[in-house]
Structures are given as C-alpha cells and as structure tokens.
Amino acid sequence: GSGPLALLGPAPGAPSCPHGPALLFVKTSQGKEEGRRFYACSACRDRKDCNFFQWEDEKVSEIRLAAREEYNRNHQPPFTHRQNVDRYKNFVLLPLSKRRFCQECQQLLLPEEWEKHSDHQFLCDITTVQLESPSQLLYPLENKKTNAQYLFADRSCQFLLNLLIDLGFRRVLSVGTPRLHEMIQSRASQEEEFRVRSLLLDIDFRYSQFYTEDEFCHYNMFNHHFFGGEAARETCRKFLYEENGERVIMVTDPPFGGLVEALASSFKKLMAMWKETEKEGHDNKEMPMFWIFPYFFESRILDFFPSLSMMDYQVDYDNHALYKHGKTGRRQSPVRIFTNLTPSMIVLPEEEGYRFCTVCQRYVSSGNQHCEICNSCTSKDGRRWKHCVLCKKCVKPSWFHCNNCNCCTLQKHNCEKTDVGCFVCGKAGHKRSACPSLSRS
Ligand code: SAH
Ligand code: ZN
Ligand code: ZN
Ligand code: ZN
Ligand code: ZN
C-alpha cells in the first residue's frame, strides 16, 4: 500500500513470527494514524523474508495458532547452538585435510556429512586462523532491507578497539558487531596479557558455529528477543555485571533500514539490564555506549537518547562500495559514533585529519570550522559548512536559501513542499522506498 508507516512499538502480548514477537504498526497520512493497526515482523522489512502479518484486532483461530507455532518451530536453524558448539569441538580435532566448510550451506562440515554436500562448493583445509575470523569465512549477508552486513574496515575496527582499551573498558557487549567481537576474541587467544572480553549479540545464527554460549547470543535487536530464552538472557546479564571493577561498554552497529525507535527501545532494555546488575544502581549513570550510525539520523537518535553526542570520526567499511577508504584518498563515509561518554575523552587520530577544538572540547574533522555565530563546529560531513543568517544555522556548502521554502536547501528542489517526512530518515521530499540513506551499495 501507500503512505508511510508508524511504529507503535513492541506491544505486550504481541504474536510471534520466527523472529520473535512482532511489532505493532499503523499506516499514517499527514502525520495522522490512519486505518487499522497491524503486527508485522520486527526483523524483516521485506515481506519476501518474513511475511508475518496480523491485524491488531484480528481473531486468530486455534487451528491457525497451532499452524503458526509449528511454522515458527520449523523455521528455526537446523542445529541448536549447543549442537553447534559440540560440532565445533569435533571439528577442531580433525586434521587440516578433513576440515571443510560448505559455502552453500555456510556450515562447517564433519566428515560423515560430506556426502550430503557433495555437489556443493566448499573450502578445505580450514585453519585455526580462519576459524578465528568467521566474518571472513562467512559471506556477508546482502539483503539490503533485512540484513545487510557491512563489515568494519580493519583500520576502523582497530581504532575502535584501541579507543575502548584506552578508555579503560575490559568488557564489550558487541551488538551486531561480529568483526569487533572477533578481533577481541582472537587477540585474547593470542596475547596472554590481553584482558578484554566480548559477548556478541547478533541475529546471524551462523556465528553460533564458532562461539560458545558464553561468547554469542542469538539476539534480535529490534524487539530485544533472545532466541535462547532465559539462559541466554542470563548469560547477557552476567556479562554486564561489572566484577572486579571491569567496566562494560556496549558497541552497536545496527542495519540502517530505519526503525530507530525499535532499536532505541531495545538498547534501553539492555541498559536497564546493566543497571539492575549493580545494587547501588550505578548512581544514576547510563551504561556507556557507542551507537554507530549515519549522521543524518542524529536528530532521531537524540530524540531517544539525549545523552548521546555525535563524534566526527568516519567509520569505514570493507564491503561497502561507497564508504570505503580508497587508495587515492578517502571517500567520505556518513557513518559516525554516537556516545554518552564525555566527548573530550574520544581522541581521534590526527594523522587521519582530526583536530581538537578547544571551544567545543571535542575532536573534529580538520575541515570542520568552528562557527563563531553558532559557537560550535557545525559540519556533519567533514566539509566546511556555511552559516545562513536567515536560517540562523550552518548548512551544507552546496545549499542556498530559498525564500519560497523559507529554508536552505539544494539549488534544484521542488518548492511545493511535501510535509510528510520519510519513514526512514524523517526528512521531507521522498518516500522511504526512495530514501537516500538506504542506498548504501
Ligand atoms: N560493522 C559491523 C557489522 C555491522 S552490519 C562489524 O563489522 O562487526 C549489521 C550487523 O547487525 C550484522 O552483523 C547483522 O547480522 C546484525 N543484525 C541485523 N539485523 C539484526 C537484528 N534484527 N538483530 C540483531 N542483529 C542484527
Ligand atoms: Zn519475521
Ligand atoms: Zn568548535
Ligand atoms: Zn553557524
Ligand atoms: Zn537559509
């Protein structure tokens, strides 16, 4: 249908699809709710990936409920996490020549299973190093709407890890950051004095082949659903408990396909979990967090987390056609770190073109000029922005002030304003299917 959707959020008693409790949505028009509310899958934006749908006020028959339960059961992965852990133990005992990984099924194979996969492509001689870097072995999921995996470039991943270490954190709750998790895990196994630990929460169950239940939880960050039930929840809770003064930080790099409110609601629940672990309640402090997301979501994110501020650091990706750091100088990545830590503590590398602004008390891109009128370093994208006296703020260098629209915008624009904002980025002028923030590759 037409018209943007509004998320009404996780609802108590919501029905479940294979991805856990569904979320409640409603169609809107001119910012007003219109029509019947309905439940849809929390994880999949594309009906092709999960076609779960139910009207909020729909009466579902016992027969359909039973069929749905069976469907949900049948759509769980073929092996449980426990089984995968046992399989891994057997796999590492095999001589190199017998270690195969099926590329079609994305699965480590035991010799008795070779037969079944005989006409599949496979990799052989899987080394320990390969097992320690599953994000290199597994192909990145590429479904744009549902589960696009954009893996950190080594440089950005190193930067993040070193920053966390310098800030004194010893535990990282890695929510949708498998590459950061694996960097931590492999350093921990290689360096004796490396004390950082990580717990990966991710919806990509393929990772359960490589990590124990203490290292990976199958988790949906759009509805805060632990697929492993209470035991997995408890693993997470234990991990958040700061024993021996080992400080915890949460790092997350969610898919950009919208639903900021759903993410925020889950992150608040993770924060609450952290808070509950400490009897003193952490003196009203929030769990430290890095939320990695494009800069054009800044206002949406701040709506939910006023304590966060956006850093200028540009996060680069490996398998990202547009945002990767090229050989001939860098392409500009729109992805930033949002954090509730004091900005002045986030030291950005001078050799990559960042400098400290003493007025703003934070590191900024070298092109980000301090505006005397705004009294801040206003650029969001690293380029020098210009101040518009009519808008009373700094704007992109390519924008000009349109007297018709009464604001700064692109030279080429349609003055007949569309006042309904895009569902994804909240900006006017396009629908979510055409949202520029979604065209990442
Ligand atoms: N840059 C990160 C990867 C970010 S890609 C890194 O290199 O480590 C987004 C990640 O979120 C992927 O790992 C993907 O599997 C995960 N993800 C996508 N949808 C999710 C969901 N609903 N719940 C939990 N994790 C999800
Ligand atoms: Zn679903
Ligand atoms: Zn400044
Ligand atoms: Zn200004
Ligand atoms: Zn203006």
From TrEMBL:
Species name: Machaerirhynchus nigripectus
Gene: Zcchc4
Keywords: Cytoplasm, Metal-binding, Methyltransferase, S-adenosyl-L-methionine, Transferase, Zinc, Zinc-finger
InterPro entries for this protein: Mlase_EEF1AKMT1/ZCCHC4, ZCCHC4, Znf_CCHC, Znf_GRF
Domain GRF-type: 17-59
Domain of life: Eukaryota
Pfam families in alphabetical order: N6-adenineMlase, Zn_ribbon_GRF
Lineage: Eukaryota, Metazoa, Chordata, Craniata, Vertebrata
Protein name as it appears in the record: ZCHC4 protein
GO cellular component: cytoplasm; nucleolus
Span of domain CCHC-type: 422-437
